[in-house]
Amino acid sequence: MRSFSEYDPIVIALYFLSVTGIAMFCRHPAVTVIALAGGLLFYLKRNGRANARFHLFLLGLFAVLALVNPLISHNGETVLFVINDSPVTLEALLYGLNSAAMIAAVLYWLRSFTEIMTSEKLMRITGALSPKLALALSMSVRFVPMFGAQARKINDTQKTLGLYREDNVIDGVKGSLRVFDILITWALENGIITADSMEARGYGSGKRVPYTDYRFRRWDWLFLAADLVLLALCIAAMAADGLDINFYPRIVSPGMTPLTAAGLAAYGILVLLPVIIDTEVDIRWRLYRSAD
Amino acid sequence: MIVIRSRPLRSLIRAAVPFVLIPALAVLGTLVFDRQKHLIVSMSAAALALLLFVTGFERKSTGTRRLVIVSVMTALCFAGRFIPVLKPVSALAIMTGLYLGAEAGFLTGAMAAVLSNFYFGQGPWTVFQILAWGMIGFFAGVLSEHLKKGMVPLLVYGVVSGLAYSFIMDIWTVLWYDQGFSLALYKAALISAIPYTVSYVVSNLVFLGLLSRPLGEKLERLHVKYGI
User: Fold this and answer.
1) Which of B38, B40, B54, B67 should be substituted to probe chain A, the one whose Cβ sees the most A Cβ atoms within 10 Å?
2) Between chains, do A99 and B111 touch, taking CB under 8 Å as contact?
3) What is d(CA B81, CA B108) in angstroms, rounded to the nearest whole number?
4) B124 touching chain A per CB within 8 A
């Protein structure tokens, strides 16, 4: 049994795409609440109480975004009060609250996505689309620390030669510009050498094979199937306008039809899938350890 | 079938279809569809444009040297995004487009967006960043003859692309918040983004001013020495 982050990158990317996609394309408070609760739960499951600043940032963003809409949009029938001759309506207020909560929810999900989706996993996805692009990307990833190390070497040499001092601002800027100048010359020449070496070793002469041999395993298929079935249920509910609330000019809810209920339930399960998988792994891990 | 004789024109059209025609159609599409669907239409158009580019890029034979040099420039952009306040990404994409061609410029901006967002956060906005930075590099390549004439046209292009980047990303901000496109919200977004817009424009001016001569010389030399 693998934890969620160890599933195939393609499966993971599709999962995040479906969760955030539904949250973004449905304008229904229940969907927003489910997405927010699920996103927060998953983020806390992975990070515990760390990163308080991220929570605070989202809270601030939520407050600002929720206030923007009622101040700018004057649609809606129920006028609450008037500021500077422009009416603030209940509908616009609720619409702003819903949008702000949706954005906070999606940001929680995307934060987890960024943590899980390392650049190595991106290679799996781009490699499936275009091996050439994947190669260019992976080379860039490798170049960054390499340039950093080279820049330090150049910097040390320049300082040893007494070519600039760090305690003088103008001299310091001039010095770092010169280091950058030398670094670029070196990087470009080094790139040419790399390319020639690649060609000498037969790059482009045959079919490319990836280093990491990702393969869909049984649980990848099962998870993918569950993801697609639940997504299809949600889309069916969306297509029948069961997951959309009209805010303007008056709030009109589709009510709790069987289709809406099914869509919400499906979305609720979808949102909980990774937490369920990770909890199961945790429990299993403890059981295995205590067995000895 | 119509055969276009001039090679530059042919490659221009091939590149323009994904990056100019499809977004243009998306804008038209948003006017036709009802408001709720703007977000879906624009996001799928952006994704489609990138998919078309990627498949075209895969089939074309790009020289290994060019590919590696583009990776080098991408890595420099990536590292440059960690500089506080001033961001050299656009300037580097412009320089690449200027000396290595429109496609290389697009690739550098686009890959810099994808890679650096592993640190700055991936999301649907990555798609729009790819398009925005990619187009900045792409048009620098298309206009390279005029931009190479002197410092003034280059700096003007830097200012225009800084503004364009901010305007494009604000379209996305509004679409995300509202699902549909609302002019009032767009104005509010533009106003609240003024500090960022200024920082983009200033970054482009500073980095193009500082880098255009030394970096240009080096890329030009690469062309003379290795024929890239």
Assistant:
1) B67
2) no
3) 13
4) yes
**Chain A nearest C-alpha distance from B193 (Å):** 14
Burial bucket for residue A42 (CB in 10 Å: 0-12, 13-18, 19+): buried
Stated pTM of the model: 0.83
Confirm if B189 and B66 have CB atoms less than 8 A apart: no
Phi, then psi, of A89 in degrees rounded to 5: -105, 155
Interface touch B58/A131, C-beta < 8 Å: yes
In angstroms, the separation between the Cα of residue A216 and the nearest Cα of chain B is 23
pLDDT tens over chain A, length 292 residues: 689 999 999 999 999 999 999 998 888 999 999 999 999 999 999 998 888 999 999 999 999 999 988 888 888 888 888 887 788 888 889 999 999 999 999 999 999 999 998 888 888 888 877 888 888 888 999 999 999 999 999 999 988 888 877 777 888 778 888 888 899 999 999 999 999 999 899 887 777 776 767 788 899 999 999 999 999 999 999 888 888 888 887 888 877 888 899 999 999 999 999 999 999 999 988 888 765 5
> Which residues from A are below 8 Å from B122, CB to CB?
110, 113-114, 117
Cβ distance of B214 and A184 shorter than 8 Å: yes
Residue A3 main-chain phi, psi, to 5 deg = -75, 165
Q: Tell me if ipTM is over 0.90.
A: no
